[in-house]
Amino acid sequence: MLYRLFSSLSLKTPASLFRCIVHAMKPQVLFVLGGPGAGKGTQCAKIVEKYGYTHLSAGDLLRAERGRPGSQYGELIESYIRDGKIVPVKITISLLERAMDETMKENSEKNKFLIDGFPRNEDNLQGWNTNMDGKAEVKFVLFFDCSNEVCINRCLERGKSSGRSDDNKESLEKRIKTFLESTRPIIEQYQKVGKVRTVDASKSLDEVFAEVQKIFDKEG
Ligand code: UDP
Ligand code: MG
């Protein structure tokens, strides 16, 4: 009866309608990538304000886990961060997945996420694909493109007040190297399938956000 009603209204069948609703609720993800200091976190905050995304910084989640009393991963995370190396994906993905679940449990309509600073290498990407395939949809990668020199100077400036153990010259050289060797190839993979939106991130905060808005007004 219900079925006939749906078909006669040339609407979807109950089953496909259900699939449709589930799909609508599925996390819609944008990966935000760029070198250290490219402005990912700053721009994400502005995107949240204007476009209603939830910002999840993989680095912030790792730092929170590092500081959580009783965490079995605290020391491991600290040593990876200080050396500019990438934490094993098992840890990062569990933090990301939990954060997405908690956000959507609180408000099921909040299913648009900016995942900032992830995936940073092949291990991250494979971990994502293995764990999240079918569970979340990656719409595109927002890439903040910035020269190494500008990145380093911004982080050294930030280091004066950030209290971060990796905003110093020694860690920064390692972070830049990791970005060039491990993260750029990930961006290139997404580029090949037309899924990268690039923004020139060396300009001022407002100029960069103007470019960001052009992208989001069209497809955010
Ligand atoms: N990190 C990681 N995996 C991630 C994200 C971050 O291992 O998915 C670690 C890595 O050591 C990195 C550090 O956290 O250098 C800081 O990352 P964050 O994204 O906070 O730095 P940003 O690039 O924003 O300066
Ligand atoms: Mg950041």
From TrEMBL:
Keywords: ATP-binding, Cytoplasm, Kinase, Nucleotide-binding, Nucleus, Pyrimidine biosynthesis, Transferase. Binds 1 Mg(2+) ion per monomer. Catalyzes the phosphorylation of pyrimidine nucleoside monophosphates at the expense of ATP. Plays an important role in de novo pyrimidine nucleotide biosynthesis. Has preference for UMP and CMP as phosphate acceptors. Also displays broad nucleoside diphosphate kinase activity. Residues 57-87 are annotated as: NMPbind. It catalyses: dADP + GTP = dATP + GDP; GTP + UDP = UTP + GDP; dATP + AMP = dADP + ADP; CMP + ATP = CDP + ADP. Coiled coil: none annotated. Monomer. A ribonucleoside 5'-phosphate binds at residues 63, 85-87, 117-120, 164, 175. It comes from Erpetoichthys calabaricus. This is UMP-CMP kinase. It is found in: Cytoplasm; Nucleus. GO terms for cellular component: cytoplasm; nucleus. CMP binds at residue 124. GO terms for biological process: 'de novo' pyrimidine nucleobase biosynthetic process; pyrimidine nucleotide biosynthetic process.
